[in-house]
Amino acid sequence: MKILIIGSGGRENVLAWKIKQSLKCSKLFVAPGNAGTAAICQNIDLDIYDFKKVKEILIQLSIGMIIIGPEAPLVGGLHDYLISIEELSDIIIVGPKKEAAKLEGSKEFAKKFMLKNNIPTAKYRSFTKENIEEGYDYIENNPSPYVLKADGLASGKGVLIVNDKNEAKRELKEMLLNSKFGEASKMVVIEEFLSGAELSCFIFTDGKNYVTLPFAKDYKKIGENDKGLNTGGMGAVSPVSFVTKKFERKIHDRIIKPSMKGILEGKLEYKGFIFIGLIKVGENPYVIEYNVRMGDPEAEVVIPRIKTDLVDLFLTIKNNSLSNFELEIDKRAVATVMAVSGGYPEKYKKGYRISGLNDKSDSIYFHAGTKIDSDGEVITSGGRVIAVTSYGNNHYEAISKSYVEINKIKFKDINYRKDIGFDL
Ligand SMILES: Nc1ncnc2c1ncn2[C@@H]1O[C@H](COP(=O)(O)OP(=O)(O)O)[C@@H](O)[C@H]1O
Ligand SMILES: [Mg+2]
């Protein structure tokens, strides 16, 4: 079967690396991909938001399965569009339909979903410019800190945590009246602040049944000890040592089960990965958010722990046959450390030559922001550049290996966090 992966990050590189190992995959394409995917399969230069072009490529290349990596095309309805095309009626699409993708595309939708299905989450209220005065009152009458969230997609930048009442009101005004996050902040969800350790939970569903994938923890801040600005993610580890059997049971009973039940009862057409962002408050799990795709860099530690053929897993979508499916998980720990461009997540330069990639290594380099220049050299082309993933008998071992290996990678102004996983 010919397979196409949509996207260009580390997540798509690890998906390609894994799918490439499947005997069921006769030819693999990634659109638009990066230098890492170009090395193992064929990149297609394609604007993934031009749905008509995506359709044409699928038909032209006789693709049998498409995996939609990032959230934006899912929230934009790529699945719905493709499935409406007669020639594509048999194609297997990994990723939910538009209505289901609202679980990530609208924080308000996700909150309502959780409330309806009794899923533990922070208390909240939503506001628009029509009732902004009520928003000010809500801030006035509730304790700080205030968690202000743009309702729509904001590339991980739409959440503000503010201590001061007046600043919270100012930010609410900026978001609702002055379009601080554009269309995304036409509605703002204000949440109660929850305090605890965060972790990421992943499930895969064929539309009816589901399997749970390994837990992971990612590191979002640019600086050591979780200081500084938010990034797309500076590293990740799996498994997560503070997830005990007992805590895992709670996640399953209170969150995963009711989420799947809500999806089925709400007739949300969902086939693909569900990423549940969790926070451990005391001994109890709460949902921070849903994402409708794999996380990045969590994919770089979760996918390498799946021993089962990923194409077989995706094929269960065809006949909802996941209930008979055995998922085999590697017992070893996996860690990834992300090398980023100097200056990221603020201004940074691109186009620097990357060397050291051919050094012999036990680790795996998953490319994110890289491309091949006209001389055939690999250069930086984004903020997050390369994730170095390693296996170990425990997470210390895995992390230590990644730190040894990341030292071999050289490009101008390279930066990475030195403390990934040290808190565990
Ligand atoms: N209710 C909350 N209490 C405390 N921290 C929160 C809360 N909601 C979000 N956060 C913090 O903000 C981050 C981003 O929020 P999230 O809902 O995941 O939005 P997004 O990933 O879309 O930017 C979370 O990872 C968490 O650290
Ligand atoms: Mg998040």
Distance between the termini: 41 Å
The fourth-level CATH homologous superfamily of the largest domain is ATP-grasp fold, B domain
The parts where pLDDT drops under 50 for at least 5 residues are: none
What do we call the CATH topology of the largest domain?
D-amino Acid Aminotransferase, Chain A, domain 1
Q: How do the strands line up in the largest sheet?
A: 3-2-1-4-5
- SS class: alpha+beta
Rounded Rg = 21 Å
- In total, how many beta strands? 22
Q: Mean pLDDT, rounded to whole units? A: 97
Number of helical stretches of at least 4 residues: 13
Report what the structure shows.
The structure is a single chain. The chain has 424 residues and is α+β, with helices and mostly antiparallel strands. The protein has three domains: 2-94, 3-Layer(aba) Sandwich (Rossmann fold); 123-191, 2-Layer Sandwich (Dna Ligase, domain 1); 197-406, D-amino Acid Aminotransferase, Chain A, domain 1. The chain is built from 13 helices and 22 strands. The two termini are 41 Å apart. The site of magnesium ion has 2 residues, from loops. Magnesium ion (MG) is lined by residues 277, 289.
Can you lay out the helices and strands and say which pair or pack?
Blueprint: E1 2-7, H1 10-19, E2 27-32, H2 35-40, E3 42-43, H3 51-60, E4 65-68, H4 71-75, H5 78-83, E5 92-94, H6 98-105, H7 107-116, E6 124-127, H8 132-141, E7 146-150, E8 159-162, H9 165-176, E9 188-191, E10 197-205, E11 210-212, E12 217-218, E13 221-223, E14 227-230, E15 235-238, H10 245-265, E16 272-281, E17 284-291, H11 299-302, H12 310-319, E18 333-340, E19 364-367, E20 370-372, E21 378-380, E22 384-392, H13 395-406
Parallel strand pairs: 1-2, 1-4, 2-3, 4-5
Antiparallel strand pairs: 6-9, 7-8, 7-9, 10-11, 10-16, 12-15, 13-14, 15-18, 16-17, 18-22, 19-22, 20-21
Bound molecules: adenosine-5'-diphosphate (ADP) and magnesium ion.
